[in-house]
Amino acid sequence: MSNPMQIYALIGTLSHSLEQINPGNAIFIRAKDDKEQEVLMREIALAVVGDVVKLSNGLYLILTAIR
Length: 67
Known about the structure:
Pfam families: YIEGIA_cap. By secondary structure, the chain is α+β, with helices and mostly antiparallel strands.
């Protein structure tokens, strides 16, 4: 049986604003540019053993198993 997943973090750039995004219980991080966004995505996903999904709007979601 698969574990249920939750959104742990959303990682965007300065073009993503809180007016457009409601992260709920997740962490919302805004990077200064695309390069920093990718670095943060990798570091956080590795730290929390998360899966990564890149949305068509450029936002990264980091998903983790609910423990």
